[in-house]
Amino acid sequence: MKRIAFFALFLNPVLWGSFYTLAKQAVELTNPLMFSTSEVIATTPLALLILVIRRKHLTRQDFSRGVVLGALLYSVVILSIFALRYTTATNTAFFPALNGVLACAIAWLVLRQRISAASVLAGALSVLGAVCVFRSSGVSGGHAGGDLIALASAFMYTIYLFATKQLTADERADDWGLCAVELLTLSVLATAFTTAGHAWDPTVLGRPQFVSVALYVGLGTTFIPTAIGIFFQRYVSAVDVAFLYVLEPVWGALFAYLLLDESLSALGYLGGGLIIASSIVQTQFDLRARAATAS
Fold first, then answer.
1. Which tens digits make up the pLDDT trace of 72-113?
2. Nearest of 10, 31, 154, 184 to residue 94 by alpha carbon
3. C-alpha to C-alpha distances, 239 to 221, 261, 277, 279, 280, nearest whole angstrom
4. 165-203 tens-digit pLDDT
5. How confident is the model at residue 287 (pLDDT cuts 50, 70, 90)?
6. C-alpha–C-alpha distance, residues 65 and 179, integer Å
7. Which has the closest alpha carbon to 115: 294, 221, 242, 227?
8. 201 contacts: CB under 8 Å, gap ≥ 6
9. CA-CA distance, 34 to 193, in Å (whole number)?
10. Which residues have a Cβ under 8 Å from the Cβ of 118 and sit 6 or more positions away?
11. Helix (H/G/I), strand (E/B), else coil: 275
12. How far apart, in whole angstroms, are the C-alpha atoms of residue 276 and residue 285?
């Protein structure tokens, strides 16, 4: 099951990598609140269907857990979309690379967990790579304000990872029902904020490009990754998942290059190489530790 979990969780950064490029194109057609609402509402019919089917299995505890995870995930979604509004897709995709070092910091400072030397090295490489890409931001068309919003999104997602690990640890929990509640919470919050901000823009619903992107983002980069996280993250530590997700900016940069013709400077590519190196260091340590435990 751990191997299946690792494969499923590896798929998430690929899907999220495609999110930045497609969402960047769509968010330029309307305001961030309208796009965030459109993408999460695309998951609502499926979430309602699941909730109806699993209504007899859903407990109050599962419901409250789903609401908490949905609220945390919404903060990640809206911050990411606002970041795309003010900086490049490549830069926005880059900052999740810091999830690993942020997870280590939280595990060490808050949870008082022991961090291996390999994780410290991987975190150092990740930070150094982040500095390189940040320094090259202006050259590649990025903006400091948008970059800071993207950094805030990465921080909130690290918190979401730990919360998912903690709240889905109970094997008696109804995973499907919890997933449905989380997605419905996203829709409710998105609708509420868009209404409060007077940001409804029905004109974009007549544009096929916007509608198709909203559907893909909602189902392919919100519903599927959320379900994967709920079903499989319990088998993998939050720190390991965070370092696995460190490849997200690589996929994001690749999609941005192919579809938006975005690129980084030499310093930016150096930073990307350091980010990949940090992921390799952590993965190799994890594999060796498991081999030693098995023997």
1. 999 999 999 999 998 888 878 877 777 767 777 777 777 777
2. 154
3. 21, 33, 16, 11, 14
4. 888 777 777 888 888 999 999 999 999 999 999 999 999
5. low
6. 10
7. 242
8. 30, 31, 34
9. 9
10. 281, 282, 284, 285
11. helix
12. 14
**Cβ-contact 239, 204 below 8 angstroms:** no
Please report where in the chains the tokens 């991987």 appear, as a residue.
122
Query: What torsion do the CA atoms of 105, 79, 157, 248 make, to the nearest 10 degrees?
Result: -100
Backbone angles phi, psi at 113, to 5 degrees: -90, 150
List own/partner pairs for 108-112 with CB under 8 A and 24 or more apart.
111/162
Those residues whose C-beta lies under 8 Å from the C-beta of residue 2, and which sit 6 or more positions away, are 235, 236
Taking the C-alpha atoms of residue 92 and residue 267, their distance in angstroms, rounded to an integer, is 17
Determine phi and psi for 56, rounding to 5 degrees: -80, -15
3-state secondary structure of 274: helix
Residue 168 tokens read as 């889905």
User: Rounded CA gap, 65 and 121, in Å?
Assistant: 34
Task: Please give the structure tokens belonging to residue 254.
Answer: 């690749």
- For residue 183, count other CB atoms closer than 10 A to its CB: 29
Instruction: List the one residue out of 146, 142, 150 whose CA is nearest residue 96.
Output: 150
DSSP 219: I
* 32-41 helix and 60-86 helix, angle to the nearest 10 degrees: 140
What is the pTM assigned to this prediction? 0.80
Task: Centre a 10 Å sphere on the Cβ of residue 179 and count the other Cβ atoms it contains.
Answer: 28
- Range name among 3-12, 166-175, 197-206, 233-242 with the lowest pLDDT average: 233-242
Q: How far apart are CA 16 and CA 39, in angstroms?
A: 13
